[in-house]
Amino acid sequence: MSVAELPGLLPGLLRYDADTGPRPARRTPRDWLVDVVLFLLAIGIGLTAFDQGGGAAAREEVQLADLAAGATACLALWWRRRWPTALAVAIAPLSIVASSAGGAAVVMMFTVAVHRRFAVTMAVAALHMVSGSLYYLVYPDPELSLRASIVAGVLLVTAVTAWGLFVRARRQLVLSLRERAQQAESEAALRVEQARHLERERIAREMHDVLAHRISLLSVHAGALEYRPGAPGHEIAAAASVIRSSAHQALQDLRDVIGVLRTQPVTDADPEGPQPTLDDLPALVEESRQAGMRITFDDRRDDDAPAPPATIARCAYRVVQEGLTNAHKHASGSAVRVTLEGNPVDGLCVEVWNRMPVSRMGAQSEIPGAGTGLIGLAERLALADGRFEHGRTPDGDFRIRAWLPWPA
C-alpha cells in the first residue's frame, strides 16, 4: 500500500467524538488496517529522519537510545484513539533529541487535528513547531541553514495540521448531511402520518353526513310501518322498498369507507370515490319526499351561470343533507323548504328551513344522534372560506343558512 492511498484510510480515524474523546467501541477491521498503516508509516518516516539526521552520526549508545525512543513513540500510537492530546504532548519533547520519533510526532499531530477542537489543535501544532525548531538546534542540517530548516519544519507541521483539519471538516460535513437526511426522512414519515390522520377525519365527516341521512330515512319509514300496521299493501311494499334500498346503500357506503381505511397510507395519487354535486340535490330531495317529508325545493340560481367549483358544490350538498337529516330527526312531519340561490359575483347561498312541530311527541326525536353534525358542518364551511348560521328564527322555526364563495 502506497502513501498516496492514505487519505482514503485516514477518515476511518474518526470512530469517536471530536470533542469528548473516544467512544467505548471495539476496533473494526477497517480500524485495524488504518492503525497498521499509520504504524508502518511512522516507522518509515522515523527511520528516514534517523538516517538523514544527526542520529546516524552520533555514538553507538546514542543511536541505540534514539532508536529505542522512536520505537517507544511508535508503539504509543496504538493508544492514540484513547489519549491523542496527551500522547502528542509527550512525543513533542521526545522528538527534540530522538530523530526516529519524528514519524510518530507527525501521526499524532494529524490525529489531534482530526479529533480535537481547533484551539487544542493549534496549541499542539505550536508545541511541535517549537520542538522542531529545537531539534534543528541539536542536529543542524549540513545542507540548509538554521533559518531554512526551521521554516521547513514549520511548513511541515502546518501541512499536517491543515490536512487533519480538512479530514475533520469533511467528516463533520458527512455527519451533518446524514443527520439532515435522517431528519428529512422523519419529517416525511410524520407528514405521511398526518396526511393519513387528516384523511381519516375527512372520511369520518363524510360518513357521518351520508349515513346519518340514510339511517334517518330508514327510521322514518320503519316508524310509519309501526304506527300504521293496517296500511294498504302497496304503501307497505313501497315503504319496504325504500327501507331495503336505503339499507343497501348505507351498507355500500360503509363498505367503501372500511375498504379505504384498510388501505396503505394515503397519498396524493389515491383516487376518491364519486363526490356529490348540486345536480344531485333533486335526487336527495326526492328521497326525503318518499319518506313522507313535505319539501319545497327552490333553485334560484342563474340559468346561464357556470357550475361552481367541486369543493363548493360538495359543501352546499352537505348543508342540504344535514338540514334534511335534522328535520327527519327533530321535526318529523313538518314542512321543509330548501332554497338555493347565487351567482359567481354574489356567491352561493343555501338555506334549509323547517317549521318546528307543534306537539311534544313530534318534538322528541327517536333517532339517536351524536350532536356533532352542525359542528362538523361549520368546520367544513370555515375551511371553504364560507359562513354558517343556524338556530331558531323570530317566528320560532329552525333555519340553517350557509354562504359559500363562488369564484368566477
UniProtKB/TrEMBL annotation:
Its EC number is 2.7.13.3. It catalyses: ATP + protein L-histidine = ADP + protein N-phospho-L-histidine. GO terms for molecular function: ATP binding; phosphorelay sensor kinase activity; protein dimerization activity. Residues 30-171 form the DUF7134 domain. The chain crosses the membrane at residues 32-50, 62-79, 85-111, 118-138, 144-166. Keywords: ATP-binding, Kinase, Membrane, Nucleotide-binding, Phosphoprotein, Transferase, Transmembrane, Transmembrane helix, Two-component regulatory system. GO terms for cellular component: membrane. Residues 199-264 form the Signal transduction histidine kinase subgroup 3 dimerisation and phosphoacceptor domain. InterPro entries: DUF7134, HATPase_C_sf, Sensor_HK_TwoCompSys, Sig_transdc_His_kin_sub3_dim/P. It is an enzyme of class 2 (transferase). Pfam families: DUF7134, HisKA_3. The keyword Kinase applies. It comes from the Bacteria. This is histidine kinase. It comes from Phytoactinopolyspora halotolerans.
